Amino acid sequence: MSQAAKEHKGENGTCLILVDIQNDYFPGGSMELAGIEEAAANAKLLLEQCRKSGTPVVHIQHIAARPGATFFVPGTDGAEISQMVAPAAGESIVIKNFPNSFRGTSLLELLAARQIKDLVICGAMSHMCIDATTRAAFDLGFDCTVVEDACATRDLQFQGRTVKAADVHASFMSALAIPYAKIVSTEEALGQL
What we know:
Blueprint: H1 3-8, E1 14-19, H2 36-53, E2 57-62, E3 92-96, H3 107-113, E4 118-124, H4 126-139, E5 143-152, E6 156-158, E7 161-163, H5 165-177, E8 182-184, H6 186-190
Helix pairs in contact: 4-5
GO molecular function, one term: hydrolase activity
Pfam family, one: Isochorismatase
Protein name: Isochorismatase
């Protein structure tokens, strides 16, 4: 296999990381996010492109370990990965219990084994697990791309006021842009996968 082919297949190359695209974030779930259906549809496009090109994919699934958790509760339908981006045979699934997808998981070892250097990250929530995972990946030496329109979040409360989801999302994407990640659209990302 040529070096170019190896890079294309993930060796010294790229991996798509789909973070927490789980049922509880969708309408009817315990923690519905603004724009999750649109974000998941974009994530599905990225996933389909990676499957066509042979680019490795890792699905991250959050399982609540904190007492009193109200979403991603073990054994519930809400904790399951959405059928929109359901893992295919042979695709890795990493279970996590913290916002940072590397903390207490096999993600780093899995990526190292495939000699992955570049991560394309999408999923939920922009202000929590996308932020924590991207910053951790940067600190571990990965080159990160966050596909912003394949990410979703929710309204937050701060000092008695509501910060709308669109503003939360924009704030976190702008904060990640320098130096943690390249922030791109799905259309731009598809051209790179």
